[in-house]
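Usage example:
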Amino acid sequence: GESVGLHLPTLSVQEGDNSIINCAYSNSASDYFIWYKQESGKGPQFIIDIRSNMDKRQGQRVTVLLNKTVKHLSLQIAATQPGDSAVYFCAENINSGGGADGLTFGKGTHLIIQP
Amino acid sequence: EAEVAQSPRYKITEKSQAVAFWCDPISGHATLYWYRQILGQGPELLVQFQDESVVDDSQLPKDRFSAERLKGVDSTLKIQPAELGDSAMYLCASSLNGRRNGGYTFGSGTRLTVV
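Running the assembly step on the lines above writes:
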């Protein structure tokens, strides 16, 4: 089965509000996590990443929180804008040491911005 | 900004026919990945190349799928024969240093429809 999953398939928020997108992972050996944004007809676009030796990382309008105790990852988007409408995926990676570093993705959350 | 180029953007093929997709990674990126994304799901890794060598093809259905990167630059993914269940988006990604700063860049994909 998948080692990364999301709690909600669709999240609807008002423009200007903050959005929180959640992700649960099951593989405790995962040590690197990335959030991607995917717009219709396009490939995933990097938003922010975090390593397992951190519990919080901030970018421009985005914050990722990692709780290793409960194997939970979240993406917070401040002051949500219409352009934030997309599907958001978390992805995980394990440092296998053998060079294989492909990502394992969850199913995604569709973020809808209400005017 | 450098991009991962993929062609064609869309492909419709009949089942049992052969189909091929092409990917040109960002110049200088030694690592190349092929992912399959079924509608409504996250991408799934099919194969990873380091230069011209396969690093991981554990999830590639080798009875019908093949991938090559003969000169360590561009790559081709082939399906023969195509089945209805192969309808999906096929994404190519490339990486210079993978697990640092989200160093995986995705192309816009090839949308395959098998009829």
